[in-house]
Amino acid sequence: MKKGKLLTAIAAIALLSAMSVSADGLEFAARYSSGLFNVDGGVMEIVDYAPIQQKAYAVNGTTGNLAIISYDGTSEMKAIDFNVRDAVEKADPSFAYGDMTSVAVSPDSSRLAVALQSEAYNERGRAAVFAIRDDGTLALRVIAVTGVQPDMITFADNNTILTADEGEPREGYGAEDPKGSVTIVNLSVPSSIIVTFDRFNWDRSNLVEDGIIIRKGSMPSTDFEPEYIAVNGGYAYITLQENNAIAILDIANRKFVSIQSAGFEDYGKTPVDLDKKDGRYSPALHENVLGIRMPDGIAAFTAGNETFLITANEGDSREWGDYLNEIEVDFADGETSPRGNLTAESGINGKVVFFNADDYDGLDASKDYIFGGRSAVLYKVEDGKITEVVSSADNAERITAEALPGYFNASNDNAIADDRSGKKGPEPESVAVGEANGRTLAFLALERTGGIMEYDVTDPYNPVFISYTNTRDFSTIVEGSEVYEDGELDKWVTGGDVAPEGLAFIAPDENAFGLPILLVASEVSGTVTAFIVK
After folding, report:
1. Given 2.130.10.10, 3.90.1300.10, 2.120.10.90, 3.40.50.2300, which CATH number is that of 44-118+128-533?
2. Angle CA(104)–CA(43)–CA(32) in degrees, nearest 5?
3. How many CB atoms lie within 10 A of CB 241?
4. Which of 112, 115, 210, 511 is the most exposed place for a label (fewest CB within 10 A)?
5. pLDDT (tens digit per residue) in 502-533
6. Is the peptide bond before 283 cis (omega within 30 degrees of 0)?
7. Range list of β-strands (E), 340-407
8. How far apart are CA 163 and CA 153, in angstroms?
9. DSSP state, residue 201
10. The model's pTM
């Protein structure tokens, strides 16, 4: 597929219901339910898997525990909780434990690491490393210091851990804005090195010229907030979500090689549904309107001798203290977009949230910008540079509209069609890559509408859409949904798997069933679900 072309669905695949009905795709196998759900998310967030012990480990953001999950082939997975906080506070009473944000298992299945944020927003966090016993239980071995607010953790190899340290200004820009960083933990010593973005302060003008979005008056060292990390061939690829950028880190030399823009979705060329008022899928083209991709999750893989990346382009606004970089425009009231490219005559009748470009460098003053790309993008890495190969463009909106016309662009806290069209649409959240049945497959989780999109990326230049699978039950209202006095539902929380957040692929030779399996952690429903990849 040539650069710039859209991914297209196979015409023979009929998406008639919430479940995929293609010969290929995902088949529900089992589910673990924490028994908790939260309209605002944060229950079951990140999941990883230990092949030797055949246990899954998932972060429960509500209880603060780590769920150790077993799968015996029945439709219900069972778990025991492990209290990470107790173990860490006993070993290091000086650390003011805040919360656990991420979990990762080493390639050889011998160790597990979790990312821990400090109770104080501007204090350094910790990476707690545990030995995984034969029965899957854990024994604390190392506590390493990280940068501020480690949000994601991963193993680069059996002895090297990386954390993405966001350093968000959570008390507002009038208070301290901590530095973003990536921490490299060497377990052989053990020791940790915190790699900051300080050297890029001298290169700010060039970064802005290259389309890196930086808040006016800020420097890269504090404005860059690492979100997610993928590792391949001695390099780490880090999403800087709010800056719409991807950083490349040379792990052995402990330095950043480059920082590059993730690019934009051009809605003058790619159709998008920005109108939440009509309650249906109504894609249109809008000149001089761009989606800032702002990738969250990222995955890396090799095809031939080449390295490729895939990003999940969620989008994210900044809301710190009294600062918010959103501009809400109500076209029904005759308002216009910030740059005047959309008016009440543009065919939009509802509210649309725009990015406040006045506060940032690195953008075109003639364009209007909205948050997120509603897409996945595949990039090629060559000589320290990232080149876009293809974007899925309108793929997610179009296919979910075909599969779920009554719930298109619903949010994860309601079942109202079109509710998120004026914001970030289906919100691709995370991505995972794995090999199964002789193919390299990519899985994209949609946080709002829900469900998993699957692509065959064996030939990265010609990716093929395989299936869309959604095990959310839109017909069920979960007890505890908020109700207005007039009886109308405010937040209609549905059943099944709601708001997929974390993905983990299990290869056929890594489980007792000899089948490729995808684990999906959903943060609103508090579930971890196993799918067989057919």
Report:
1. 2.130.10.10
2. 75
3. 29
4. 210
5. 999 999 999 989 999 999 999 999 999 999 99
6. no
7. 351-355, 360-361, 368-371, 375-382, 385-391
8. 4
9. G
10. 0.94
